[in-house]
Amino acid sequence: MTAQPVPAIRVQGLKKSYQQLPVLRGVDFDVARGSIFALLGSNGAGKTTVVKILSTLLAPDAGTANVAGFDVATQATGVRRSVSLTGQFAAVDEILTGRENLVLVARLRHLKNPGRTADDLLDRFSLTDAGARRVSTYSGGMRRRLDIAMSLIGNPPVIFLDEPTTGLDPQARIDVWQAVKKLAEQGTTVLLTTQYLDEAEQLADRIAILHEGRIIVNGTLAELRQMLPPAKVEYVEKQPTLEEVFLAIVGADGRAGDEARPTVDTDQ
Amino acid sequence: MTKHHFGDTAVLLGRSLRHITRSLDTIITTTIMPIAFLLLFVYVFGGAIDTESDSYVNYLLPGILLITIASGISYTAFRLFLDMQSGIFERFQSMPIARSSVLWAHVLTSLVANLISLVVVVAVALLMGFRSGAGVLAWLAVAGILILLTLALTWIAVIPGLTAKSADGASAFSYPLIFLPFISSAFVPTDTMPGPVRAFAENQPVTSIVNAMRDLFTQQPVGTDIWAAVAWCLGILLVAYVLAMRTYRRRIS
């Protein structure tokens, strides 16, 4: 493996306790520029704590973290200019419309033309029709798309996505995945936390498993596979997964579901 | 950072003012209790209360205005609590904006919302026969006291707004503030109260604030009451601001 000259994120010896409870006990990892890095772990493993420290919302007890060349403790302003956070719960303003939410963030990032930025993003995330509606009327998937769109305003080089697909239906999940892939293609560094193994498998260039406050494994999917018991060849009848059935029935791209919908009637 | 402070505050103020204009019912809700007290005391108890004032509604209004503010700021705490809960607060904090502008936007919104509530309550009082011969200057002085008091109580409201664990917890702090006027000169003169109660009533902030406004409305010389009122408001404002900012820094560290 060749060492990356300057990683987009470098975390060394990060420790954090809440009162007596140690959550992070020395976390180290690097994220290369333009890559998707998945932090995998069960609930309470400390994934959100890592993200909060990296986005300057929480101060670590020990260790250093560097994001886009800025130290989170001493150069918080530089970090905040370079990152965008999409938290675990869609951080959108319910009373404002979708477009107003985008304009709000664009104004706070001091962009020249907040209105046009908002319209572009509405278009990119298929929210143009819903743009003038209050967010309280949105579905979970729409909220999440708006949330991610808000994070992209100002083109920050590093994006944190904390459990971006928790609570979404399969189609909304795929929409989010596509958006994340597109981001990485454009050179954005993405740090993603998830508890879904398939999500890490689908998206991540590298996967790290956070367990009991430490990174116990860190590698590419291929490297991780090699650590497991060797692959066995078995003959199994390939049944479609329930997800494949669901997507086939409602329309795989999630939009053209009305055409050619087969009727399924189990009583026949 | 600070060069954007006013701009950022203005943008965020615009956001929370939209919340107010899109849910005007919250303003109506906060005026229901003070208006109910006004009706109850003027039309039920008022006839039996001897205030040496020509009309009881004239005597009562300053205290009711205080209760209006105390009831209004509970919504400030509630709105702040919702922002903390929804994650939008964290989004703002992780952005390169002036950090205190998030709080200032809420504080200024509280001021606007409370001024609207106060106008509603004064309008109801006028319908019920409240009259004052006060000139422009006296009205401005009353407005000044009310603004100062709203700011002071709003900074108190910021603390539960930042720290509460539930929506009820965020607004429960205002109940003692709503009932403080009952042990003051707001509803009845303090002369008839027994010794210790009277001592408390005459030396707590509500009495001097209410007396100062009453004197301004009735064109009496305001004497020392107005300075005591202003001193109380400024004192509460300063202490609440320092505590709120300390709580804020602890919450976002």
TrEMBL record, chain A:
Keyword Repressor: no
GO biological process: response to antibiotic
Protein name: ATP-binding cassette domain-containing protein
Gene3D superfamilies, per the entry: P-loop containing nucleotide triphosphate hydrolases
Family membership: Belongs to the ABC transporter superfamily.
Pfam family, one: ABC_tran
GO cellular component term, pick one: plasma membrane
InterPro entries: AAA+_ATPase, ABC_transporter-like_ATP-bd, ABC_transporter-like_CS, ABC_transporter_ATP-binding, P-loop_NTPase
Subcellular locations according to the entry: Cell membrane
Membrane topology: Peripheral membrane protein
Source superkingdom: Bacteria
Domain ABC transporter residue range list: 9-237
GO MF, one annotated term: ATP hydrolysis activity
SUPFAM superfamilies: P-loop containing nucleoside triphosphate hydrolases (SSF52540)
Record's keyword terms, sorted: Antibiotic resistance, ATP-binding, Cell membrane, Membrane, Nucleotide-binding, Translocase, Transport
Annotated source species: Micromonospora carbonacea
Keyword Metal-binding belongs to the record: no
TrEMBL record, chain B:
Domain ABC transmembrane type-2: 25-251
Domain of life: Bacteria
Pfam families, per database record: ABC2_membrane
Transmembrane spans: 24-45, 57-82, 103-130, 136-158, 170-188, 226-244
BP-aspect Gene Ontology terms: response to antibiotic
PROSITE patterns (UniProt xref): ABC_TM2 (PS51012)
Protein name: Transport permease protein
Species this protein is from: Micromonospora carbonacea
